[in-house]
Amino acid sequence: MHALVTAPSREGRACVNQRQFHFISFHSSSSSSGTTGKKRRSQPPAMADLQTPLVRPKRKKVLVDYLVQFRWILVIFVVLPASALIYFNIYLGDMWSAMKSEKKRQKEHDDNVQKVVKRLKQRNPKKDGLVCTARKPWIAVGMRNVDYKRVRHFEVDLSAFRNILEIDAERMVAKVEPLVNMGQISRATCPMNLSLAVVAELDDLTVGGLINGYGIEGSSHIYGLFSDTVVALEIVLADGRIVRATKDNEYSDLFYGVPWSQGTLGFLVSAEIKLIPIKEYMRLTYTPVKGPLKELAQAYADAVAPRDGDPAKVPDFVEGMVYNATEGVMMTGVYASKEEAKKKGNKINSVGWWFKPWFYQHAQTALKKGEFVEYIPTREYYHRHTRCLYWEGKLILPFGDQFWFRFLFGWLMPPKVSLLKATQGDAIRNYYHDNHVIQDMLVPLYKVGDALEFVHQEMEVYPLWLCPHRLFKLPVKTMIYPEPGFEHHQRQGDTSYAQMFTDVGVYYTPAFIFRGEQFDGVEAVKRLEQWLIENHSYQPQYAVTELNEKDFWRMFDASHYEHCRQKYGAVGTFMSVYYKSKKGRKSEKEVQEAEAAILEPAYADEA
């Protein structure tokens, strides 16, 4: 999830205050975990303890509170119109690219790759700084500050790499450049009844970001993360060599090293990605669930992996939304033909129309009317969260979900995240870090209940998003990997070759802020990160991190990544992944140390 927000609305506060939320104090034992050399599992509280109220000190409002509260004015009159123009311009560019022959697109691609090689060879290692793309910091989709671009660095322009090079229906592979986004590729493939195996929900998410970082969708319980669906990578290395890496050629180590590396091993200039056959509609079942958080987690696990283990019952898509501490809706989808969808008695819901209710609110109606089934056009289902940016749209525009706004102005949604970032200063940016949460927790399926209780007690953020994904056993130990020996436990959802994980998406303003109470966002994220480390879980790097280098490499495994850094000459040329992820503006001394590779040795404590 990648989005940016504004102030809590009056309606949002009322909605939260109506919920019976409570909080207990939680004292993390993780502060000593770095010295013990062992991961210690946090013991979640009993559900009864979650009902113990704790009165927090009231928070005093300052000027930036009012700037954020009324930021919707800027969004309405500046950001939305500008976003619409940018989207239209991008659409025209995509159409122009599609009109070119594959041969011409490939020739332009080859020419652009040579420009990258030439630019890399112009770098003077003694004075030019470490290499990164020329993309402006505010353009990136994500909450991270991209502070590494605020000091000396050497830029390489990759802005031309935004074309679909080939859709090969025989090999079932799409060859695309890194700036191709999800909306662009689904627009090209869905009319052919083809799709990427994993289509991240937001239109603006790019192939390069999803491969170098992480990407997920409701089909990931079958196919894994976005990077798991890649067939081949074309990469420009530090010395200007152009290589094609696959899982079984001489560059297989690079193939497995690129995911989660944040572009620090080389420049990705194209990727070949797996396609799957699809049908025109998604048959979606909305199932309401009520009970304690652990029961919601179990209902979600049953949706992901039926207890009887029958593979025929595994749906094509799974998604869960937890609306408060006792209510959630689990959604399971199966591809359906046009003929089935249009049978008498079946309901078709085109959720992509601009005036339609926002998807998360539509799903929430199952809590009142009970389980129901409907058919959604497949491409509209893929991008169901785009228009309202999950539920962040409610904070960006407090009245954006009202029918009058949707009908008159819904076609302008969503605001472009890059423009939201470009129109904020440091004060507002820091305000979001302190008073708002955008984090994803990738946790083993059997620990989802513990994760939900942790988020409730530490952040009290709702709704929460649940999306399952397989974490495969690979020939090498990559930055993220399953729990050692998981296959011997035969837990729900696991197989001999993959452990089932879940993305717990935490995106919203904590209830403490709505109630006018104090909330320390930095300390809350620190405790979240320690919980992840202790529970063999992961934090995607698009989010703001408070990890120091030691803890970063306790969460992730460095061995294979460092092997690739050394073997392919990235050290001293490309930034390290921790350097890119680290919060805060880098000093010139840090730049010099990174150039000389004088960094704290990467390691992970023994479990």
Automatic annotation (TrEMBL):
- Subcellular localization: Membrane
What general EC class does the enzyme of this chain belong to?
Answer: oxidoreductase
Predominant location: membrane
Q: What residue range is the signal peptide?
A: none
Q: Which InterPro entries match?
A: Diminuto-like (IPR040165), FAD-bd_PCMH (IPR016166), FAD-bd_PCMH-like_sf (IPR036318), FAD-bd_PCMH_sub2 (IPR016169), Oxid_FAD_bind_N (IPR006094)
Q: Where is this region: Disordered?
A: 27-50
Please verify whether the record's keywords include Membrane.
Answer: yes
Q: Which GO terms describe its molecular function?
A: Delta24-sterol reductase activity; FAD binding; oxidoreductase activity, acting on the CH-CH group of donors, NAD or NADP as acceptor
Gene Ontology BP annotations: steroid metabolic process
Ribonucleoprotein found in the keyword field: no
State the annotated membrane topology for this chain. Answer: Single-pass membrane protein
- Give UniProt keywords alphabetically: Membrane, Oxidoreductase, Transmembrane, Transmembrane helix
Gene Ontology CC entries for this record = cytoplasm; membrane
Tell me which Pfam families the record gives: FAD_binding_4
E.C. code: 1.3.1.72
Transmembrane segments in this chain: where? 70-92
The FAD-binding PCMH-type domain sits at: 99-278
Task: Point out the coiled-coil segments of this chain.
Answer: none
Return the protein name: Delta(24)-sterol reductase
| Naturally occurring in which organism (per UniProt) | Hordeum vulgare subsp. vulgare (Domesticated barley)
